Amino acid sequence: MPNSYTSNSLLTLLWNANGLKNHTTELLLTLQEKRIDIVLISETHFTSNSYVNFPGYDSYRANHPDNTAHAGAAIYIKSSLKYIPLPNFISDDIQSCAISLILDNIPITFAAVYCPPKHKISPARFTEIFSTLNNNYIIGGDLNAKHQQWGCRASNPRGNSLLQSLPSTNSTVIAPPNYTYWPNSRRKMPDILDIFVTKIPRNLHTQIFNLIDPCSDHSPVMLSLDCLPQAKANASALSQFPTDWDKFSTILSEKTCLKLRLKTPSDIDDAVNLLTTNIQTSVWDSAKPVPLHVKPSPHLPSYIRTLISQKRRARVIWQRTRYPIDKSLYNALTQKLKRLLANLKSESYANYISSLTGMDGSLWKATRKLLRIHNSPPTLRNADGSWALSEQSQANIFANHLSNTFQPHHNIISPTKIQEVESYLNSPLPMYPPPRAFTPGEVEFNLKKNSPKKSPGFDLISTEVVKHLPRKTIIFLTQIYNAMLRLSYFPILWKYSIIILIPKPKKPPDCPSSYRPISLLPTLSKQFEKLFLKRILPIVDEAKILPDSQFGFRNSHSTIHQIHRLVDKISFALEEKLYCTGAFLDVSQAFDRVWHSGLLYKLKPILPSHYYLILKSYLEDRFFSVRVGSSFSSPTEIKAGVPRGAVIAPLLFNLYISDQPTSPHTLVGDFADDKAILTTSPDPVLASSYIQDHLFSLESWYKTWGVKMNETKSIHGTFALRQGVCPTLYLNNQPLPPAQCVRYLGILIDRRLTWKPHIINKTRTLNDRFRLLRPLLTSKHMKPSNKLLLYKLLLRPIWTYGIQLWGAAKISNINRIQRFQSKTLRTILKAPFYVSNHTLHTDLKIPFVSELAKTHYKRFNNRLAHHKNPLISDLSSASIPGNPVKKIKRQWCRDLLA
């Protein structure tokens, strides 16, 4: 093969692997030797539970719809390239997966296709496939379409169909100069089956070559294009090089001036802009360039390289002569090479596993690779139904969606209420003494406490940078913070956020609402919020604004406290043979739709005027841009909602919903926007009427303050030992769907409070996590101490959540978790059958599940009596609140104290 392609060529490898898992090592060697950018694979033989990944490459696959190990197609593309994945085309006769790249400012689709030979494919069917791949495309695969037009020995009906479909789509076939199919049977003749079907601009020059390696019953083909796609941008950071922090502090101190005028809001904006610029330029000026480290390719021993050369020579001879003796020699060399490569890979993996340790972080890096969920780039459609093929268009789609989301529900708020709120907000404010100023020591202490893992905002000033700010700059930052307090003004630059989107699990990828927005705010802005929060929290606590039933985002309040209250209520009902029924409500876009005017209406009578005004400035004129890859949408205004990612946002939300109506007949449990309402009664009709009356009052409150409920996701749950049915509950005239088991704050609560559904669910989760960690936990090369550490930190926390409550379940249910723990410990130590579970737990100093449940509840109960919230301190009672007579043979969580 002439080496006529250059380093500026895009190299695409096409190969029918006839089962890729059997050829992974060979393909990996070819990828490294040939610098392949894109790999199009036919006949992967993958299922939903099998796949192959290669380091440095992203993978997309289209398996056969019957989910058995045959047929299928896959694409591997370098992770460093910028691309957009497209939806798969999967049917019995065709399996195709595709991506889109920008080449010479033109989006071009690359698709891997496999067409099994037994199906009849018409020209219209080929046209249908090509029409799904946008205007320009390169399709590569084994189509089982032969025609003399592209060099085949003979034509077949599918080749005729393909040829007839080409003029209507303006496509052409690019075939290799030599055969690609080498049948093992001497009754069959070699032929060309692996081809490219292309529709690309004429200025893109292509060359096609046959390759020898890797090999199955097909030989690979390489297509070279004389252009390169865009590379992904580097991770967002001020500098890609290490920073000399001493030099940084010196430079920044010299640039910092403490005599700036801070008398007006524009002065504050100018000062923030100057500070941001000084920090950024100081980081750039103090960067320490280091030589570019190129990761070396894996070095193969000389005896393996020699064997590879011999195998290639034997393959060429057999393809030329087709003699059985040459085939036998080629097969023998192939099998010998496979064995040697497998041994080399096994030795390398053993050395890697044995070197892992928790001291240098290598163990956790390895587990992250196993547990990390690979988030593919988004796949979105434009308004006209076409695919968004660039990061910029996707960013704009997300921005339009979020712009509609960050709006108040004006359609459910009455005009009278809006007028009342606006009138009150325009009324004069009372006089208050000036606020207490921040001190440089207070600011410096706050800066040092930052977590280094927090992502920076648009200015790229990270927590690592602010930890190294010199004293002079800290004083200047303190002056800015105090000017913000004095003038009740929040700078405009610190109200601009960058939003990235993470796909939600099991949601359609082409819908913008299937992605969860994550807001990145400037670090210095969040530092002010932390200081400001310390000033207003005592005011809120002293005024007792937040109801005791609200446990969300409050110090010393946890989800277990709230669930414990609900469990006590249910336990009382079961002991007294009552009906306990409840509504578990879901708020639609709770944090994103907060009505700003309504929030200020509630803040105005609570806070001193200077704090109220700074929050008013904080909520006004906020903007965001969506980042997809390295592209940004244009800035868009936020007209509702508490700022995502902001330190003060949870408190603002809690204050907004703090005046929800209550009822003397119901128990309310709030955790931010998760709301549970329970009541008990011997009469199921009366129990439902209590909840329904409470829901009617909540409906009125929700409409008044523009809070929209999601009736389809809200649940009606009943807990009782009796067989009666509580009447249906309604919210906004919509029936709440009933459920025998309710999920609340991550805990499954069943009708009879047996905890069996929750424990079964946790067992499934544990088994799934164990399967992911199996390569490490079952490796004979890893130290048992490291395996035990993985169990304690990555597996045990899954089932210990809520053990203070479900730890009182029947022993038959507890044993489900106990069996998992025993099997895992036996796997870690590879203990033989005659070693008892008691010996395993004793030697490893791992308590049994029942013992751990008692330990956790005792520790939890010891902290309840002196809690400042009376609803939590009441949980410390020795018996269930209400002191019911024990009538059923059931163990409750308080029995764990015995």
From TrEMBL:
Residues 483-749 form the Reverse transcriptase domain. InterPro entries: DNA/RNA_pol_sf, Endo/exonu/phosph_ase_sf, Endo/exonuclease/phosphatase, RdDP_mobile_element, RT_dom. GO terms for biological process: DNA biosynthetic process. One of its GO terms (molecular function) is catalytic activity. It comes from the Eukaryota. Pfam families: Exo_endo_phos_2, RVT_1. PANTHER family: ENDO/EXONUCLEASE/PHOSPHATASE DOMAIN-CONTAINING PROTEIN (PTHR36688), ENDONUCLEASE_EXONUCLEASE_PHOSPHATASE DOMAIN-CONTAINING PROTEIN (PTHR36688:SF2). This is Reverse transcriptase domain-containing protein. The lineage of its organism: Eukaryota, Metazoa, Ecdysozoa, Arthropoda, Hexapoda.
